[in-house]
Amino acid sequence: MATFIDPLIAFVSAHAWLAYLTLFLAALLEAVPVIGSVVPGSTVILALSALVPSGDLKLAWVLLAAIAGAVLGDGSAFWIGHRAQREILGTWPLSNYPRVIAQSEAFFKKWGTWAVFFARFVPPIRAFVPVTAGALDMAPARFYAVNIPAILLWAPAHVLPGVLAISALHRYGGIPHHVSLKPYWMIAVIVGALIAALVTWAIRRRQNGAVTPVAGRVTGQG
Predict the structure, then answer these.
(1) CA distances from residue 175 to 81, 163, 165, 181, 188 in whole angstroms, order as listed
(2) Summary mean pLDDT of the chain
(3) Reported pTM
(4) What is the DSSP letter of 33?
(5) DSSP string covering 87-154
């Protein structure tokens, strides 16, 4: 994998604007219903943050790209739901995810306005709560009053761990600055994301398997 990562890092280092665009799109797509539950936006942001300590990317621009993408993504989803109201929750492709929609509604009804804040840190609900908030007719001013502060906390929480980890390894791990840790950091993040995805898939499959026999018995009795 290192043979693949090395050219990628070299390319991104030579085209910083592409890295910022990738960060923007990763944050934006993570907020889009359905797509946001599939696109590993957080993993991309965390991996690219490893380019900050070396100076390939600027921390301020990395944060700005992530914040701008999240604001646009959440805002777009909210306004789509606000205009279409509850009908949007029953249309394709949201109709293919009734369980997540139900979780999002329950999450929103339990926490109210604060659901918008907390959901920013809870995938995959993060991709569904903004459109649900709009569909349930939440006032735009209330939405943005909670959403924007949440994003301003979410972006550093995703960017700074990568920056601090690489900086700490160079400073306290006895690793010279000329030795690049970026490939190993990105590989570690990707492997970690794959493991997390597999665990999540296994848990969901187990839950679905536990529900299916019950549904079958109910149907048979009818």
Answers:
(1) 50, 15, 12, 9, 17
(2) 75
(3) 0.71
(4) T
(5) GGGGSTTGGG-HHHHHHHHHHHHHHTTHHHHHHTTSTTGGGTHHHHHHHTT--HHHHHHHHHHHHHHH
List the one residue out of 56, 208, 78 whose CA is nearest residue 142. Answer: 78
Instruction: Locate 128 and state its tokens.
Output: 């569904």
**In angstroms, rounded to a whole number, what is the distance separating the alpha carbons of residues 10 and 4?**
11
Could you report the per-residue pLDDT of 108-119, keeping only the tens digit for each? 888 888 889 998
- Local structure of residue 37 (DSSP, 8 states): G
- Dihedrals φ, ψ of 56, to 5°? -65, -35
Q: Which two tokens stand for residue 5?
A: 């990562």
Neighbours of 4 (CB within 10 A): 10
Q: Residues 29, 70: contact at Cβ < 8 Å?
A: no
Please provide residue 54's backbone torsions phi and psi, each rounded to the nearest 5 degrees: -80, -10
Task: State both tokens at 22.
Answer: 């990738």
Residues 117-140: tens digit of each pLDDT: 998 888 777 888 888 889 888 999
**Selection from 101, 99, 100, 75 nearest residue 88 by Cα:** 101
Within 8 A by CB and 6+ apart from 150, the residues are 116, 117, 118, 120, 121
Measuring CA to CA, how many Å separate 199 from each of 67, 75, 202?
29, 31, 5
